[in-house]
Request: fold
Amino acid sequence: EAGVTQFPSHSVIEKGQTVTLRCDPISGHDNLYWYRRVMGKEIKFLLHFVKESKQDESGMPNNRFLAERTGGTYSTLKVQPAELEDSGVYFCASSPLASGARPRYNEQFFGPGTRLTVL
Amino acid sequence: AQSVAQPEDQVNVAEGNPLTVKCTYSVSGNPYLFWYVQYPNRGLQFLLKYITGDNLVKGSYGFEAEFNKSQTSFHLKKPSALVSDSALYFCAVRPVYTGKLIFGQGTTLQVKP
Reply:
């Protein structure tokens, strides 16, 4: 079974440019999460999709960040315009939807991350 | 504010010795607790979790973690370290009724031969 994949693995852009990150979750996983780790600090939550709906976007830093998950499959995270402080590693994770047979505390499966450098 | 603390940036141990990576948390209620490991150029891999029950949970690669409710701690342990255990370890907490994980800042484990 394929794991969570992210594209690109690295991106170097200049301040003011636009970048779009993509995440493909594990097939059948309705929960999709975005996280970010900036400069050796803790990994911080950005937002959570359940299928195509935003369940929680409390971690999105500002309106320069736009996440979408059309059709409830893959997701994109667009940063426009990028600023220096947006540099970091962006992780995507997925998990199955909780149900009677699947508990709420399933672990999340993480992708390898996209390293974004804004110059 | 809800938070997770990993007080050590780096832990150094000799191969064959026991290791402990510390984690404490400040989250209301009875959260779910996790440890993840990140090897170079790889994503985070799940190691183990505590939901309820026995305070000592066992996970992948011989790791275990001890939950202490009174100290709000969830320390990662292994009786005998291997050089291949060298990696970056993250403690994470999932508050009840939310899907998001709250992470600590990570601890680099260095196991020397």
